[in-house]
Amino acid sequence: MVRPHSLRPWTDREQRLTKSGERGAAPGREQEVPAGEYTELRLLVDTDASYVAESSQPDVQQTLAVPSGEQSGLKLKGRFVVAADTRTDFTVDFDVAKSIVNPEGPSLGDYLLKPVLRLVNNLEVGSISGNVDYATLQSVRLSDTEQADCAYSGAVYVYEGADVTPTDLNVNAETDGPLLVVPVSDDDNDGQYRYTAAFLPAGDYTLGYSCQLDDNETDDVLEFDGIQTVTVVAGNETIAAPIPLQP
Predict the structure, then answer these.
(1) How far apart are CA 45 and CA 50, in angstroms?
(2) What is the pLDDT of residue 65?
(3) By C-alpha distance, which of 208, 239, 241 is closest to 225?
(4) Secondary structure E strands in the chain
(5) N or C, which end of the chain has less CB nearby within 10 Å?
(6) Angle 246-157-134 (CA atoms, 0-180°, nearest 5)?
(7) Between vectors from CA 202 to CA 98 and to CA 211, what angle results, nearest 5°?
(8) The pLDDT of residue 69
(9) Beta strands at 180-183 and 155-160: parallel, antiparallel or unpaired
């Protein structure tokens, strides 16, 4: 089972832009490339400099293997245009909860990276932020025998579209699941847990919070609180209603 882990950023990585079927220059964080329409972005992963650290054992480095990733790279398909004499900023959004699996039996590494990547134009995205009153939610669940207790601080599940019925995350499922799973955190220890879902293209999204464990390779029955529809506007931060929702 894999829940959100801390993943050390890739180092010594090479990014490649493919333009109209050709391989472009190898850009770094910022690089001049010929103007035109591009169809693919590749990220080459240095597995020797990559590892997984579980939250329960943060000092133990476990190996991370990328099937074919070092040879062909992690490919992001899609058409986008780089205009002449301008700067164009893109973000590659990497979803840890969807992308790291714990293989059974013999494997190339302790964990496998089967990346779920999104390439977004920074001019076309916004974000959603909000608060979760975890103490209140846990108190209600402890006093109600029909509700499952919280197993951890939880995460906010983000789905594309309005009024979506929330489901668990299962990377092996044929149906669409959450677009993002965003862990909540109480960094300032004030009892209010916070989250930010970033780099979301403009449009409607459904949010739901769950504090039950979710195996990312199997179907799990989760209970969700604070289900709501939120509209994202490009260039803006949208503040969601606090969870739990007020009656």
Answers:
(1) 8
(2) 82
(3) 208
(4) 6-7, 14-19, 22-23, 36-44, 51-54, 57-65, 74-82, 90-94, 100-101, 111-113, 117-121, 125-132, 155-160, 180-183, 193-201, 203-210, 225-232, 237-239
(5) C
(6) 45
(7) 40
(8) 53
(9) antiparallel
Residue type, 79: R
- The pLDDT score that the predictor gives to residue 34 is 86
Residues of the chain scoring pLDDT < 70: 1-29, 68-73
pLDDT, position 154: 93
| Helix, strand, coil fractions of the chain, as percent rounded to 5 | 10, 40, 50
Q: How far, in whole angstroms, is CA 210 from its chain's centroid? A: 16
Q: What is the model's pLDDT at position 1?
A: 40
b/e string for 81-118 if b means 16 or more Cβ within 10 A?
A: ebeeeeeeebeeebbbbbbbbbeeeeeebbbbbebebb
| CB-CB neighbours of 138 under 10 Å | 15
| CA end-to-end distance (rounded Å), the chain | 35
Angle among Cα 239, 243, 247 to the nearest 5 degrees reads 105
Is this model's pTM higher than 0.85 or not?
Answer: no
3-state secondary structure of 143: helix
The residues, any chain, with a CB within 8 Å of residue 187's CB and separated by 6 or more, are 194
User: What is the sign of the dihedral through the CA atoms of 188, 201, 93 and 223?
Assistant: positive
Q: Which tokens is 153 given?
A: 């601080």
